[in-house]
Every structure is written in C-alpha cells, then in structure tokens.
Write a structure and sequence with these properties.
Two copies of one chain form a homodimer. Chain A is of the alpha/beta class and 348 residues long. Chain A has twelve helices and 13 strands. The first copy, chain A, starts with a strand and ends in a 7-residue tail after the last helix.
C-alpha cells in the first residue's frame, strides 16, 4: 500500500527527514509492504511542490541546496506555487509531517496546519513544540473526534521515547512526578563550564556546533525547557495548559561560579532541571539550575544528551536518557512516529 | 467484554499478581470496558482451582495463607484437583499468565505450559526467565503461527520497558550493542560492599530482604544476569540461543578488594555488567564485574535497580533504568502486558 506524506517545512529537520526517507523507503517497503511517498512539500519562504506519484527526493534536496527553493527542481508532473493552507485543504494525502519553523510564543502557523489536517481526518506527526505547548488538549481532542492519530515524539527528547513509553509500554501507569534535563544546549554549556570554560565561550561553541535554537536565549534562559516540561505535564499528567508566566523559570545565564566548586566537591554535576509536581488541584512546573549528587540518575546525562525521571504509581521510578538534539535524530523520531501509525510495522 | 485469566503458579509473584488484579479490576473495567476474571489457578504443589464465573480472589489468598493450598477455599462452584496440563488443555480461557517456579537449567515445566496454551491460540504473558532463555525462538514461532500474543516484559528488569520499548516505541530501530546491570541482588551487594560491608554480610542482608533468587548463587555467580542478557540478545538482536557454556560468566563471589578502592578513587562504581556485542556472524555475551566511571549512565544504577544501555542504529544511545526486583513490580509487569493485549486500553 502507498502512504502519501505531506511535508510542511524544509529547514534542517525537513531536509534531514526527506534524506532519511529516501534512504529508508526501499527497506521499509520490503519489511512492511508500505510504500512511503513524499506527495508534497510546502514551505512559507522556499515555495511549494507536489506530485501525484511522489516527488523525487534527491532532485528536491539538490535544487534546494543550489537555489534555496523547493519549487525549482523541474521534475516532470510537479505542481508548484500554491499557499500551504490551500495545499493542505486541496490535496489528498495520508499523513501530515509538520516541521515548520518553531514559534514558542504562539505556536503558529503550525497549529493551524495541524488543525486543518486533523479536521480532514488525516494523521499528523510533528516535531514542533509550539503547537503542543499551546494547544495539545485542543489538537488531541480534534484528533480523537476525527479518529486520526496525532504523534509528536520528536518534540521532547528528540525521539527518545517519552510519550510512547507510557502510551504503549507502561499501559495503565500514571505519572506522579517528573524531573528532567530537557535542553541539550544548556546541558552542553554547563558541562563545558564544569571543565573550566566561561559561559560566553561555551555558548559560542554550542552555536558553532549548531545544537542551539536559532535564538539561543530560548535554551539558556529556560524557555525551551519550560515548554517541554509543560508538554510532558499536559500529555502524561493531564495538566492544563500553563502559560510561561505561571512557570517558575530560572536559566543559566548568570550562575554563581561557586555552584561548580560545590558540585565538584560532591562529585556531582550542575544541571538545568525541569520539575513537574502534581499538587492538590494544580501542577507546579519549574526550571532551575541545581547540583545533582553523583548517585542521581540524571547526574551522568552529559553534553547534549537529555534525560527524564518519572515517578509512576505502578513500578516506581523509571529513568530514560538519550539523544537530546540534532536534525537526524529528529528525523528518525518523525519516521518512527509514521511507522507506528501502521500496527503491522511492529515486530512481534 | 470478559477476559478470562488462567494463572499458573501461586508463589510470591502469583499471589502479588492476584492481589493486584483484585485491586485494579474495577478501575480497569471502568476505563476500558474489559472485565478481568481469574478463571483458574493451577499449581504443582498447592493444588488447582477454577470457576466459570471467576474465582473470588480474596478467598483464594486467605485460604492459601492459612492452609498453603489454593483448592481449599470452599467457594461455591469451584472445581479443584486436575493436573495443570489437563486444565490448560481442557479449560476455556483468554490469556495464560505463567509464573510457576523458575528453572534456569531447562525452563520446564513452564515451557510446556506456554507451548500448550499458544498451540491452542491463546495469548500468553509470563515473568518466567527459563522458557525465554531456552526456547524464545520456538515459542515465538508458535505464537506467530497461531496468531497469539506472547509477552514477557517481567522477565528482564521487572517491568521497566525493554522489549516493548523497541517493539512499540523505537519501531524500525535495530540494537547494535547492549550493556546492562540486570541483577538487582548482586548490584545491592556491590553497593553495600562499596560502603565497607563484607560480601557475606551483604549477602545475608539481601537474603533477609528477600530480593535474591531462592538459590542466591544464581544471582551472585552471574547466571541470572547471563540468562537475561541472552534473552535480550535473542529478542532484540535476533541472536540464536546461546547455552551458558558459551557465555563468558564471572560473578561477584571472589572480588579483589582493591577494585572498590580504585572505583572510589575515580568516583565510580563496581557493577556486574552484562554485555552483548554482535560480531561478524556471531554474538559475544559476557557477564563481569567492572568499574564504571562516574559519567557512565549505568554508574548511578544503585541498589536493586536495574539498567540497560542500548546502542541503536537510529538515534544512537538510549539508556533506561528502573525497578529490578520485587513481586509487586513483577505483578505490575504482568498486568501491563495483559492490558497491552487490548489495543483499546492505550491512552491517546
């Protein structure tokens, strides 16, 4: 069977996803009988393109590399030029893969794109935090009404299972409390500072390696962490949307240098820790640099790695750590979400 | 709908599972519409009992506590006294929950029980390592032929997701290499020795707390760890069955005391580490005490906790740590496996 993918966004993640799709399409067809086709690519600044039989991904990547646009590859049969919303509305496809540029302030236009696709009863897969942070409950309600799947493992911890861990593995378990190291950039900076670097040099290094968000203040001032903690709280703890103004956020821009000396003395580490705790009838969400002792499961979460510690009502504490950043990892997260749409992909 | 459970074994795990079932049955019915019924209990040394409408679990637990038997509760309509195999053969049920006494040497009689149930096309859930270690490939083949589910999350890491993590979350990912702390008893002993205890005192303490296997040599000499490493290798890496004689096994009974001094000097920990590595056309499985440096993800896996580090071909390294022992945790693992048999239990 064919599965037609509508890709929104062709930045680092969109390109990495397309390249991964090209690499994997044959082996996925062989192992599962599902033929993944890139039916359309839509962007706001690089044009749009679609093809009934699926776009030729190598041409698309090459043309974007040279011209900066997706509508110039000259593939036979390719239609170009319509606005994104018209394409979502008008085209036939099976799954929308949303990775347009992030907007933590409002979650737009991604929220509108996702809503349109779900409203059509189409499955949606995204790595975009904005729509989840602002509109998880609304989007998930629409998905449920329209019997569509809405998956977003790539939004937090870049494909290291968090949401599917509870939905598909720890079935019937409730999350009572969360601690997490959810921002790779600030964790990388803290590790460099532990080894004696200044904050400024560490920030330059992490930007040079392109780990950070385009606006590094989102990382270092704790906004990215706060949005992820809130997403986990909404999805796994049924917390309502909590605006930034009601989250206690402290970043790593102005740290007491003494913190690293004290951490060193106890063989611990300074980490930017997100916490979610359920209180009587509310949820306390916070982001704050803390010293973790050496026996804390998140102490060894180093560099751009992420980690989350969950207190469950069934088997106690569970901790999972893994990839925290990177377009390729995010692309894998999107592809795994797509594969999980097909029950029959799952190995026995 | 009713889901009729056939429970084999009424030791620590069987009793904990029954008690958990009793506690959860109402909330599961309410949240999913599935009515879990304990249709039968069969043991080799405590008798057998079954009831068309489901056994009264509190009577069963009480009668076993007083008389040591499951066939003496005097519940109306209860049939007692048939051999286990006749009951599996003759009774109608939906899922076999196998937690009879462990036998790492041959995996019997559990393997036969499981095989009979799968052959009837019935789903099987187990926490019993023996059948998995010796006969995973055979049992999984029968399950596949008979379109039955065969789940065993409780065999390794006591319900902390390992198998479902790859089958249901990291879909399409291959495991290239594994490191694990898979035996809670030896890990608890190593932690006590780190704090200055002798091996003998630590062993007595862990036995007093009833964490260890009935034969503690299975834990401390590495056999339990080796069987679990082999199970993971078979299930997640397609390794063939590897007999103990072909696994390199070193336990913790005669440790060089200098090991702890060296570990302390580098702020590390001594852990009994299982490794599985795929080589050209074979698999190297080993169990050995090692010093892990403080930045190793398994260094902080303390006490009876377990942990496993997987190198994947998609998103790199993933580490998961959690419960490593305990009848209640194992009972939760069995129940989660049962719940996952019903796709509709899964939260959206």
């Amino acid at each position: 069977m064919d599965l037609r993918i509508f890709l929104v966004g062709f930045g680092n993640v969109g390109r990495a996803f397309s390249a991964l799709l090209k690499d994997r399409v044959a082996s996925i067809l062989c192992s599962s009988g599902v033929n993944l086709k890139l039916a359309a690519v839509a962007t706001r600044s690089k044009g749009t393109a679609c093809h009934d039989e699926g776009l030729e991904i190598s041409h698309l990547l090459e043309s974007e590399r040279i011209t900066g646009r997706v509508d110039s590859s000259g593939q036979k049969g390719v239609l170009v030029g319509k606005p994104v919303v018209d394409m979502i509305e008008g085209l036939d496809f099976d799954v929308l893969v949303e990775c347009s540029s992030p907007d933590l302030e409002r979650g737009e236009p991604a929220t509108s794109y996702i809503m349109m696709a779900l409203d059509k009863g189409k499955d949606v897969v995204t790595s975009n935090k904005g729509p989840l942070f602002h509109n998880y409950h609304i989007l998930s309600e629409i998905a449920s009404q329209r019997k569509a799947s809405f998956l977003f493992e790539g939004t937090v911890m870049t494909g290291t299972p968090v949401f599917s861990l509870f939905r598909r593995c720890l079935i019937g378990s409730r999350v009572l409390r969360i601690e997490g190291v959810l921002n790779g950039t600030s964790n990388f900076i803290l590790d460099m500072m532990k080894r004696g670097s200044s904050f400024e040099r560490a920030l330059m290094e992490v930007q040079r390696r392109a780990y950070s968000e385009p606006d590094p203040f989102l990382d270092i001032d704790g906004w990215d962490s706060a949005s992820k903690a809130s997403i986990i709280a909404q999805v796994l703890m049924d917390a309502p949307f909590t605006p930034f103004s009601e989250i206690s956020i402290e970043g790593i821009r102005t740290l007491d240098p003494d913190l690293f000396i004290r951490a060193d003395r106890m063989a611990g580490s300074v980490r930017l820790i997100c916490r979610v705790e359920k209180q009587a009838d509310s949820y306390a969400i916070s982001v704050k640099p803390e010293i973790l002792p050496s026996n804390h499961p998140l102490c060894s979460v180093s560099g751009i790695t992420n980690g989350a510690l969950f207190m469950t009502d069934t088997i106690g504490e569970i901790c999972i750590t893994g990839a925290g950043a990177g377009p390729l990892q995010t692309a894998h997260a999107l592809l795994m979400d797509i594969l999980s749409l097909q029950g029959n992909f799952s190995r026995r």
